[in-house]
Amino acid sequence: MKIAVSVETTCDLTKELLQQYDLKQIPFHITLGDKLFLDGEITTQEMFDYVDETGVLPKTNAINEFEYAEYFENLKKDYDAIIHISLSSGLSSSCSNAKRAAQEMKDVYVVDSQSLSTGIGLLAIYAAQLVKEGLEPSVIAQQVEKRTASVQASFVVERLDYLHKGGRCNLFTLLGATILKIRPRIVVKNGKMGSDKKFKGNMGKVVRKYCESVFEDFHNPDLENVFITCTSASEEMLEEVRMAVKEKGFKNVYETRAGGTIASHCGANTLGVLFFNDGDKK
User: Fold this and answer.
1) Which of 72, 75, 52 is nearest to 63 (CA)?
2) Is the full-model pTM beyond 0.70?
3) Where are the beta strands (DSSP E) in 130-181?
4) pLDDT, tens digit, for every residue of 207-232?
5) Helix, strand or coil for residue 25?
6) Could you tell me the end-to-end alpha-carbon distance of the chain, in angstroms, rounded to an integer?
7) What burial class does residue 129 get, using C-beta atoms within 10 Å of its C-beta: 0-12 exposed, 13-18 middle, 19+ buried?
8) How far apart are CA 167 and CA 174, in angstroms?
9) What b/e string do you get for 191-204 counting C-beta neighbours within 10 Å, with b at 16 or more?
10) Are 268 and 209 in contact, with CB atoms under 8 Å apart?
11) Residue 87 contacts residue 63 (beta carbons within 8 Å)
């Protein structure tokens, strides 16, 4: 049986990784002013420049049921079954739209990642590995769904204006963070984003503290794969996190840039370390 593993552009995987693991992808939509783009048609830097010039935050639009149906139908021309791993249902209506489209088709399985960005990417790579093992599509979907709870997806954010404009933090928090240089750690838990810790200072030092806190709080990593994912970052920031994951002993370290959909909600200089936190269960 020929099985396709599918994701949305919210997985933030590079073209090379998509090709390496034979992953299929459908894009979200981004609106800048009166212009509509597919996620990937503009760079995150172009998007940040637009916000700096206009003060207007990009809008992201979920993929609708019709688009999923058309996308799945095209994949089914070449594949017997589809495992689609969607952006968390707690963050977007895309997952429910995909599930409704899949209900009308045979052997199309939609998994709610309960995550975002390369947290989805981790699950997609895992699914691709299960496909190579020759498992049935229904079993693969079940195994991937079971592992969603083990995804450690967190980020440290330099600027809160994007989160404020998007309604995810109040004005008081924004002003306090700006004046005091407070950088929150955003963690995805039960499919939703929330801040659980705060750091203070320049981002080079903050990233070091962030990495220490992540490996202290999530101390059972599967050392097979880890993602260093950012919207943008200085070399100092990247070097700090590279050293941290190297010291931890991860086998495959992937560096990726967040696409437009994810970056539009958190702004520049947002950086995260993402991995499976189920080392004893692998």
Assistant:
1) 72
2) yes
3) 151-157
4) 999 999 999 999 999 999 999 999 99
5) strand
6) 25
7) middle
8) 11
9) bebeeebebeeebe
10) no
11) no
